[in-house]
Design brief:
The chain is an alpha+beta fold. It is built from 4 helices and 4 strands.
Length: about 130
C-alpha cells in the first residue's frame, strides 16, 4: 500500500510539473524529439482540396526555384492524429510552414493567392542560402 501511494504521489507531481512547461506556439514539436534544422511543412485537409489549389501551384513554383529545399517537403494531413506531433497548435488548413532550428520562421495559412504564398516562403528560404 505504501508503494502504491508513493507511486501515485510521484506520478501526480510529475504530471503537474510537466504541465507547467511553457512552450512557445512558434516551436515545432516532433513526436520523435528530432531537431529540425531546415524544413518546409505543408498542412493539408484532404476534405477541402479545392481550397488548396493555390498552395499546390505555389509548391510547384517554389520547387522549381529551390529544388534542394523541397526534396524533403513534409506533408501533414490535418485529419489525422499525427498533426499534433508536428505542432503544438496546428495551423488553419491549408498552410505552409518554414522551420529553421525548430523555430517557425514563416507561416502562410488560410485562403491566399499563389503569389501571396510564394513571396514570404521564398524570402524565408533565401535566408537559408547565407
Amino acid at each position: 500500500m505504501k508503494h502504491i501511494l508513493a507511486f501515485a504521489i510521484l506520478t501526480s507531481t510529475m504530471l503537474i510539473l510537466t504541465s507547467c512547461d511553457d512552450i512557445s506556439s512558434n516551436k515545432v514539436v516532433l513526436a520523435q524529439d528530432q531537431f529540425i534544422e531546415k524544413q518546409v511543412i505543408f498542412f493539408t485537409d484532404e476534405r477541402n482540396v479545392s481550397r488548396e489549389i493555390p498552395y499546390y501551384d505555389a509548391i510547384i513554383e517554389l520547387k522549381k526555384q529551390y529544388p534542394d529545399h523541397f526534396k524533403q517537403l513534409k506533408v501533414v494531413s490535418l485529419n489525422t492524429k499525427t498533426t499534433n506531433d508536428f505542432a503544438d497548435t496546428p495551423p488553419t488548413s491549408p498552410a505552409i510552414v518554414v522551420v529553421e532550428d525548430n523555430q517557425i520562421i514563416c507561416k502562410v495559412e488560410g485562403h491566399n493567392s499563389k503569389e501571396n504564398i510564394i513571396k514570404p516562403v521564398s524570402k524565408a528560404i533565401q535566408t537559408w542560402e547565407h
